[in-house]
Write a structure and sequence with these properties.
The protein is mostly beta strands and about 180 residues long. The protein has two helices and twelve strands. Helix content is about 10%, strand content about 40%. The termini are far apart. InterPro entries: DUF4124.
Length: about 180
């Protein structure tokens, strides 16, 4: 077993040194192979360097040495209801939305509700509301908390839910007996 491994390690550089040939067929498709074909040109592959190219000159300044500061959101908004991938059964299409904001905001704010990429509702200084007459099917939902000057203070990640509404006359179709 050990001799076989040594044989593989010793012959692998020789296998990598095989020539490569390139040709274009009559349909204009390029082909590459290790066996020569009529009208093929040999491609000489350069040996890859075994070591790095050497030290690279890096220009640093005092401002780039400091750790980058990313803006941290001061508030975190979490969608409480409907839960992700939830199935809601409501024949009137009512969807109750509730969110949790930490830490709580003491200044005025607006909760904006986005359904399937469209702004469908907004509520002043409240984290719960109801959407009426929503069509059945899968929906994407996310919320934004916005300050009076229009700054987004917090937002939820997009969540998906499914709304089921019963249909009138949804009796199963009769299937003929065979």
């Amino acid at each position: 077993m050990r001799r076989g491994l040594w044989l593989v390690f010793l012959t692998s550089p020789l296998l990598a040194a095989e020539p490569v040939y390139h040709w274009v067929d009559r349909h204009g498709v390029s082909h590459y192979s290790d066996t020569p074909q009529p009208a093929a040109t040999r491609i000489d592959l350069a040996e890859p360097p075994l070591l790095g190219t050497g030290p690279m000159a890096v220009q640093t300044s005092a401002s780039s040495m400091a750790a980058p500061t990313l803006p941290t959101p001061s508030h975190q908004l979490q969608l409480v209801s409907p839960e992700p991938e939830a199935t809601i059964r409501d024949n009137q299409g009512v969807v109750r939305i509730a969110a949790r904001l930490t830490p709580a905001i003491t200044t005025p704010f607006t909760l904006k509700v986005w359904l399937d990429g469209r702004l469908v509702a907004s509520q002043e200084n409240a984290l719960a509301l109801q959407l009426q007459n929503i069509d059945r099917g899968a929906h994407r939902l996310h919320l934004d908390v916005v300050s009076p000057d229009g700054t987004i203070l917090a937002k939820t990640i997009e969540s998906r839910f499914y709304l089921h509404r019963a249909r009138i006359g949804s009796q199963p179709k009769a299937t003929p007996r065979q």
